[in-house]
Amino acid sequence: MTVRDPGLQPERTRLAWRRTTLAATVAAVLAGKSALREGPGVTALVVCALCCGLWLGFLAVAHRRIRALSGSVPPQAFTPRHASTAALCTIALAVCAAALVF
Amino acid sequence: MCGWGVRGAGSVGGVIEFVRNVRLWFAPARIEEEGVTPDYRFSLANERTFLAWLRTSLALIGGGFAVDQFLPDLRWEWRAGLALGLLAAGVLCALRSVNHWVRCERAMRRGEDLPVSRFPALLSIGVALVALAMVVVVLAGWES
């Protein structure tokens, strides 16, 4: 780290990523609980595994970004690819939820 | 009805604009060609706004799961309707978060004003309607 940013912008952004990961974890736990409500059937396990995979995907994006933000100042730019991956994980989780409702 | 529709609600222009933005989501190089790179602090603030919207989206999706799970005595139509309403709001919120992030980033590069949006107002009306429906359904005891 070369310069210290007095506004602590990278730290704040890093914490925002942590909060978002926490929210994703809560949603994934609710998804798992929902999937396994009627006992462990094949469908339930598949949906559960899918939700775990989506959660891991989200975690990977967050981890990569947190690493980038703890490096140099100014940090690397946030790319649209990362933004869309994070959003797509969220959307896929919602699709799993919709499938579980039926 | 979302951020991209502001310029011409329901018009073809809005749709074309949205498709153009979707292409930008996956082509990071193209956004970097335009204008000048803004102060990194503004970009980080934009990123935090994106994350805040994504958290809102995750909370709505969590709410959808919760309705499905913690109101088992509710009639199926009501349970599914409320859950799907919350989930749809979550999906819209996630889509809009990326789109708004791209638009803000581009506006900063070009030195334009930040885009305005009626999405927050629409979302709050939608959430209020779902909450109201939930109160009515639970209080009136329209259970199976």
UniProtKB/TrEMBL annotation, chain A:
Record-annotated membrane-spanning stretches: 42-62, 83-101
InterPro entries for this protein: DUF202 (IPR003807)
Start and end residues of each DUF202 domain: 5-68
Record localization: Endomembrane system
Primary location recorded for the protein, binned into one broad class: membrane
Keywords carried by this UniProt record: Membrane, Transmembrane, Transmembrane helix
Domain of life: Bacteria
Pfam short name (any one): DUF202
This protein's record includes keyword Secreted: no
Mode of membrane association: Multi-pass membrane protein
Keyword Transmembrane helix: yes
Name the UniProt record assigns to this protein: DUF202 domain-containing protein
Organism: Streptomyces tauricus
